[in-house]
């Protein structure tokens, strides 16, 4: 039974960085790494950079139910031992709720919530003791975000779901870590912000993608249920716990 890692949203951003760090680390030894994203050419290019690693390239659109079913069918056919599942695929869009296209809002829900839940559910059947799940949530999960309303709500789901799942799987020895990064200059950030240049004060909160990913992998190995890179995002988490959201929302635009 081959030991595998599954990484969604692997064609860019955090997903690509996860593949890179896992392949370059001596601490991981997978028979295969399954990389999932819509753009096959990017996945193929990524796999070519690590010729010693065996990859399974799955060009799937996780907003499409047929693609989710295809992933499930592949699991049933191969019956692998999934040692690591990284649910990284995600969509975001900045703007007032009623100004963002309905399709964009629904796609955020489909990918950030529905696909993540589906992938986790069907994969768990093939996970055993000492396996690990990493879910990419966001610091936006800590409190409501005007002009990021749907995205923040979906990430609140990911954080809540991950923490509950971690307790449910504790007896099985399966570890779950929710990663809550702040803003990172990746392709995701550019798409979400409509390619607008971020305001100067926002750059104070930026974290390099490689540090977010290395911290996530470290926290996962340690069995930590949440991973937050950087003092500013840790501070935001604390503020969101001790100060009423109604007060904080007065200062968010």
From TrEMBL:
* Pfam family for this entry, one: adh_short
Annotated GO MF terms = oxidoreductase activity
Q: Which SUPFAM superfamilies has this protein been placed in?
A: NAD(P)-binding Rossmann-fold domains (SSF51735)
The cross-references to Gene3D superfamilies, in alphabetical order and at most eight, read:
NAD(P)-binding Rossmann-like Domain
- Keyword set, alphabetical order: Oxidoreductase
The similarity annotation says: Belongs to the short-chain dehydrogenases/reductases (SDR) family.
Q: Which PANTHER family match?
A: NADP-DEPENDENT 3-HYDROXY ACID DEHYDROGENASE YDFG (PTHR43086:SF3), VERY-LONG-CHAIN 3-OXOOACYL-COA REDUCTASE (PTHR43086)
- Quote the protein name from its UniProt record: Short-chain dehydrogenase
> Which species does this protein come from?
Vallitalea longa
